[in-house]
Design brief:
Layout (H helix, E strand, L loop, with lengths): L1 E2 L4 E3 L2 E3 L2 E2 L3 E8 L4 E2 L11 E2 L14 E4 L6 E6 L1 E2 L1 E2 L3 E8 L2 E6 L15 E8 L4 E9 L28 E7 L2 E6 L4 E5 L5 E6 L1 E2 L2 E2 L28 E6 L5 E6 L4 E2 L2 E2 L1 E2 L2 E10 L4 E10 L6 E7 L4 E7 L26 E9 L4 E9 L26 E6 L4 E6 L17 E7 L1 H5 L2
Length: 440
């Protein structure tokens, strides 16, 4: 165990989080090019994906490359493609034994380019001893009962499937057969039934002030001579993560970035802090209670949040780097290497302090410094360590008193973290972290 280099200041009290070792206990790889059919009652428009990736229409399948960098280095995958991609895992729940649920995000990243990307959640069976998986089913989100108060992309269709032009599902919890989903576009809190049909939409407020991103349906650009901007949440920085209390009475959705207030982003001593909100499931409304989570750097983001017990939880904090150090660019090389390999990819154990209203960082594990004592890894080690070098790591949950499960969001077909310009697989790892989970 060793001390963290930096430290965190919360409410004038200095807390230092300790680093603990993580040991690889299981590794499952779901290939990047993995697709599912749209439902039979879905319109023809949803039988392929990526037709508006570059904003203007292109219906010819496989006609252009996906580009990664300023030099537009293409990978081997071409778009648009048939079917829907089984990708973008952005929230995980361990149920029991080998049963897990994984949420997929809005598709290709923005409202503009994801109108033909369906939104859905998956049920998997993971066998970490064998390193195998079974995709059991996918539930597609829809608004058949017209509960979404705004115009949806497929408004005139009978099935009214929700697409990536409507919502960006980034976090979820399962409570009493309902899927509670945190959306980034509004942001909104959404409740779906067990078949994926929308039941209710909850607007978000903080201290009686509405929280709105530039993608909220109520906001639109005004005339060029009017500077008014009512958005106080960055675009695509809504509910990236969401935990639930162990007694299933509260939800704790987390904004991915600081709230913009009084001309600046909320911060303490120059470090931005994120808001963890509280939603009362019995009264079905947001409470006045919030917690602040301070980032180690203003350039960081969070990936997922789940509770261990009533007071302690797990939060992923990461930077925007990707790639392995052994393939880092040297000298003037740029075409077969990583310009900025993964550096800061951590899972923090936090404590919710009700009196101070903070999420105190207690301990962390480093996801680019994982031991592979039992030689489980299905990907090459780097300097005798297993690394999880992904740009976006958006899944973490506790499995038992010794283990947690972690997974990446492969942003298919964009992210390339194992091999330069090669689309990432979906990887799910089991980590033995007994001492980390015991930390107080």
């Amino acid at each position: 165990m060793k001390k963290i280099v930096g430290s965190l200041c919360l409410c004038s009290v200095l807390f230092a989080a300790n680093e603990y070792e993580a040991n690889l206990a299981g590794h499952i790889v779901i290939p990047a090019e993995n697709f599912i059919n749209a439902p039979k009652d879905a319109p023809e428009f949803l039988q392929s994906t990526g037709k508006f990736l570059r904003t203007t229409r292109n219906e010819n399948l496989g006609t252009f490359n996906v580009n990664y960098t300023e030099e537009e280095m293409p990978n081997a995958f071409r778009i648009p493609f048939k079917k829907q991609a089984l990708q973008g895992h952005s929230g995980i729940k361990f149920i029991n034994d080998k049963n897990f649920w994984l949420l997929s995000d809005n598709g290709l990243g923005t409202k503009k380019n994801s109108s033909d990307s369906m939104t859905f959640i998956h049920h998997y069976e993971f066998d970490f001893k064998k390193g195998s998986y079974k995709h059991l089913k996918t539930i597609f989100f829809n608004d058949k009962n017209k509960k979404f108060p705004y115009l949806i992309n497929l408004e005139s269709t009978k099935s009214r499937y929700l697409t990536g032009a409507d919502i960006d599902p980034e976090s979820f919890q399962i409570i009493d057969k309902s899927f509670w989903v945190g959306d980034e576009f509004g942001p909104f809190l959404l409740e779906f039934d067990e078949k994926g049909t929308l039941k209710e939409v909850f607007d978000v407020n903080l201290n009686k002030e509405s929280l709105l991103s530039p993608d909220h349906p109520n906001l639109q650009l005004s005339n060029p001579d009017i500077q008014e901007n009512k958005a106080n949440i960055k675009r695509s920085k809504g509910f990236e993560a969401m935990a639930s209390s162990k007694d299933k009475t509260k939800l704790y959705p987390v904004l991915e970035y600081a709230v913009f207030k009084n001309g600046k982003y909320e911060n303490k001593g120059g470090k931005n802090f994120l808001r963890i909100l509280e939603f009362d499931l019995k009264n079905r409304k947001f409470t006045a209670n919030t917690y602040t989570y301070t980032l180690e750097s203003n350039a960081h983001s969070i990936g997922d949040f789940n509770m261990i017990d009533e007071k302690y939880g797990l939060i992923i904090e990461r930077d925007d780097t990707e790639g392995t150090m052994d393939k880092a660019c040297k000298n003037q090389e740029t075409k077969s290497c990583f310009k900025n390999p993964a550096k800061f990819k951590r899972i923090y154990k936090i404590k919710l302090d009700d009196k101070k209203g903070v999420a105190q960082k207690i301990a962390y594990i480093d996801l680019v410094n994982i031991n592979d004592i039992n030689k489980i890894a299905k990907k090459p080690l780097v300097n005798n360590k297993f690394v999880f070098p992904f740009f976006t790591i958006e899944n973490v949950d506790i499995v038992d008193e010794k283990h947690i499960v972690v997974a990446n969001d492969n942003n298919f077909p964009f992210s390339a973290s194992r091999e330069p310009f090669v689309p990432d697989d979906n990887e799910v790892i089991l980590l033995e972290v007994e001492e980390f989970l015991k930390a107080k």
